[in-house]
Amino acid sequence: MKVIFSRKLTNNSPAEEDYSPVTLHDSIQKTRQALDLAYAGFDDALDTDLIDSYIYEITALQKRYKYLLGQAASEDISEEIPSNVHSPVRALVGHVFG
Fold first, then answer.
1. Which residues make Cβ contacts (< 8 Å) with residue 75, sequence separation at least 6?
2. How many structural domains comprise the chain?
3. What is the CB neighbour count within 10 angstroms for residue 35?
4. Among 29, 40, 49, 86, which residue is least crowded by beta carbons within 10 Å?
5. What is the pLDDT of residue 4?
6. How big, in percent rounded to 5, are the helix, strand and coil portions of the chain?
7. What pLDDT, on a 0 to 100 scale, did the predictor assign at position 75?
8. How far is 71 from 20, CA to CA, in rounded Å?
9. Is the Cα torsion angle 82, 78, 38, 62 positive or negative in sign?
10. Inside any domain, residue 89
11. 3-state secondary structure (DSSP) of residue 8
C-alpha cells in the first residue's frame, strides 16, 4: 500500500504581529474568558489526567485573575468580581458527585 503525502502550499510571508499595548481591562477580560473556557473544558473532561490539567489551568488562571484585579484596585479601575469564579476543588466535587 502506498502512502501519499500532500503538501499544502502556504504563504511564506511573515504574519503581522499586533504590538499595540494591552490595557489592564483587556487583560482582565481575556483572563475571565480563558477561565470560562477552562471551566467548560473541565465540565466535559472524562480522563483523569485531563481533569488534573484543567484543575491546574483553572488554579493558575484564578491566581492571574486575582493579581490583575489587585492591580486594577490599586489603579482605581472598577471591575466587578463575577460570581462564577469557583474553587477547582468545589468544581471537581460537583463534577464527580453530581
1. 24
2. 1
3. 21
4. 49
5. 62
6. 60, 0, 40
7. 83
8. 20
9. negative
10. yes
11. coil
Query: CB within 8 A of 73, min separation 6: which ones?
Result: none
pLDDT given for residue 89 in this prediction: 53
Query: Does a structural domain hold residue 2?
Result: no
pLDDT at 47: 93
Burial state string for 39-63 with b = 16 or more CB within 10 A and e = fewer than 16: beebeebeeeeebeebbebbeebbe
Whether 64 maps to a domain, the answer reads: yes
- Terminal-residue alpha carbon distance, the chain: 49
Q: Is residue 69 part of a domain?
A: yes
Predicted local distance difference test score (pLDDT) of residue 90: 56
Q: Which domain holds residue 36?
A: 24-78+85-97
Q: Which residues in the chain come in under a pLDDT of 70?
A: 1-18, 21, 77-98
Which residues have C-beta within 8 Å of that of residue 62, sequence separation ≥ 6? Answer: 35, 85, 88
Could you tell me which residues come within 8 angstroms of residue 59 by beta carbon, excluding any fewer than 6 positions away? Answer: 88
